[in-house]
Design brief:
Belongs to the ABC transporter superfamily. By secondary structure, the chain is α/β, with parallel strands linked by helices. The chain is about 35% helix and about 25% strand.
Length: about 240
């Protein structure tokens, strides 16, 4: 693929004595949504954390727009325009929604038009704007977590399981927000266990197993091939799991 926004080449990451990533190779096309898929525990979250600099790669290259960011500290990667939504949401519970959002807008005051757009896709954020984030429901906290990453236009968004454990109505809200972000031309690397969401949003897919990439291609190809899904992940997207 031409001019990917992100490329991982031979990335190895160790956590204590465990070799988690074992030579990960894939590319994220610019202006597309790339789904990072696979069973639990195969290294998807570690891949995002390594890209973001939370874990240090032992070997390999992580190239963002032509610059190798492997080894850079997390704040430097963030300043390069990478937004990250961790699986544990990473919000500040003791602060208000407003304060959480202000902290996330690193380049200055929040753009009013972008804030109005976020309110339109996540109405509870406007409703509870002055309220403490810790008082939000689980789904509302996830909305805030994603909105914090989206408060400014980023070069690349890394999003880890945004619909995990959420009620179907909230999943629909999340998917709609991510679709709007996609329609704006955003480049997104998305870990997602809900395959109906993955099928609806993904342009391309990368499937991991045991710390390695075992398949990469068009999301539509994977979505339309039940035997391939079963072979790669032991799951059928047709079943909606």
């Amino acid at each position: 693929m031409s001019d990917p926004i992100l490329r991982l080449s031979g990335v190895f990451t160790d956590i204590a004595q465990y070799h988690i990533l074992q030579g990960v190779d894939f590319e994220v096309p610019r202006g597309q949504v790339t789904m990072l898929l696979g069973r639990n525990g195969v290294g998807k979250t570690t891949t995002l954390r390594t890209i973001m600099g939370h874990w240090r790669a032992r070997a390999g290259q992580i190239v963002l727009d032509g610059q190798d960011i492997a080894g850079l500290p997390t704040p430097a990667i963030s300043r390069m325009g990478v937004g990250y939504v961790p699986e544990n949401m990473g919000i500040f519970s003791d602060l208000t929604i407003e304060e959480n959002m202000i902290l996330a807008a690193s380049s200055g005051p929040i753009d009013r038009a972008r804030l109005d757009w976020l309110f339109s896709v996540f109405p509870p954020l406007q409703t509870f704007w002055k309220g403490q984030a810790g008082n939000l429901s689980g789904g509302q906290k996830q909305m805030l977590s994603i909105a914090r990453a989206m408060v400014e236009e980023r070069r690349l968004y890394l999003i880890d399981e945004p619909t995990k454990g959420l009620a179907p109505a909230i999943v629909s809200t999340m998917a709609g927000a991510l679709r709007q972000l996609k329609d704006q031309g955003a480049s997104i690397l998305l870990v997602e266990q809900n395959f109906s969401v993955a099928r609806a949003l993904g342009d391309s897919a990368v499937v991991m197993d045991d710390g390695r990439v075992v398949w990469a291609g068009a999301m539509a190809e994977l979505a339309n091939d039940a035997s391939l899904q079963e072979r790669l992940m032991g799951l059928s997207m047709e079943a909606g799991h």
